[in-house]
Structure formats: C-alpha cells, structure tokens
C-alpha cells in the first residue's frame, strides 16, 4: 500500500535497508504491465545484458526487444518492485520516443535519455510509486556519450513527479 510521509517524498516501501524478493517472473509481469500502459506490444525479453537494461527499437530490431541484468540492477539499488517498474518505464519510453528528435543538445541520445527519465517521473507520480531507490541508482551514474550525468537525470525524474502533481492538482481544482 503506498504511504507517503508528510513533508517527504520517502515512502516506507522505499527504505534503502529493505529489499523485496523480486523474481524474474515479477520482472516479466512488470514489463507486461508497462507495455500495456503505453499501449505497446510486449517486447521480446532477455536476461542477457551487459548493462542494467536496454531496449532495441526501430531499425535495430524487428520488434521491440528488451534485455536486462537483474543482478546488476539489484547491486545498483534497484531492489523493489517500484524501482524495477521505473527502470522498465524508462526503457519502454525509448520505444515510444525513438522516432522523435528533440534537438536541444548536440547529443540527441542525451535528450532521449532525459525524455525517458521525465516519463519515469510522470509515471511514478501518477501511479504513486516510490522513487528514492530509482533516483539513487541514477544519481550514481557518470555521464557518457550516450547518457547525461546521473544527478541531472535524478532531477529530471523529480521534475516529472512535480509536474504531474501540479498538473493533477490544477485539473482537479477546475
């Protein structure tokens, strides 16, 4: 049951000292739920991955293909259902966003990553998911040619949460 503490984004389910036993079957269910939310076909899923998780879309794949490394994710702090869900929301957002070009930075890959992070924040707030573990894992990532610095990405997730909360409150008021 989601429970938010007053004055804090921290959720009891998001304690860094607690973990959930998230199984491969749980992860596959999360991926199916996220694909359904986005009205996308379920991707082909593989547990053989050199990184935390990745999705191949567009010309790279005949259909969406997702791979992940559950042990690597757990080591990074992605060790509860909410954090896994946000990880796969991020990856599935790539499937939605790959045809679009944002052209705000020289590196379009950075924009794609930030757009997927924003999507994760919007999803988290709209589904009352705890974000602490997901943002912590992001914040520890160094920038590269394909990914912006993790601290920026963490802030974009938080902006998505805030934007959803403000927009939802505004819609309810009218």
Name the poorly predicted regions: 1-13
Oligomer: single chain
Largest sheet: 3 strands, mixed
Work out the helicity level: 40-55%
The assigned structural class equals: mainly alpha
| Strand line-up across the major sheet | 1-3-2
Which geometry do the CA atoms define?
Answer: globular
Tell me the span between the first and last alpha carbons. 29 Å
Specify Rg, calculated over alpha carbons: 16 Å
Q: What can you tell me about this protein's structure?
A:
- The chain has 174 residues and is mainly alpha-helical.
- The protein is built from six helices and three strands; from the N terminus they run αβββααααα.
- The radius of gyration is 16 Å and the shape is globular.
Which tags fit this structure?
single chain; 174 residues; mainly alpha; 3-stranded mixed β-sheet; 6 helices; disordered N terminus
Summarize the structure.
The protein is mostly helical. 51% of the residues lie in helices and 6% in strands. The protein has a three-stranded mixed β-sheet, with helices on one face.
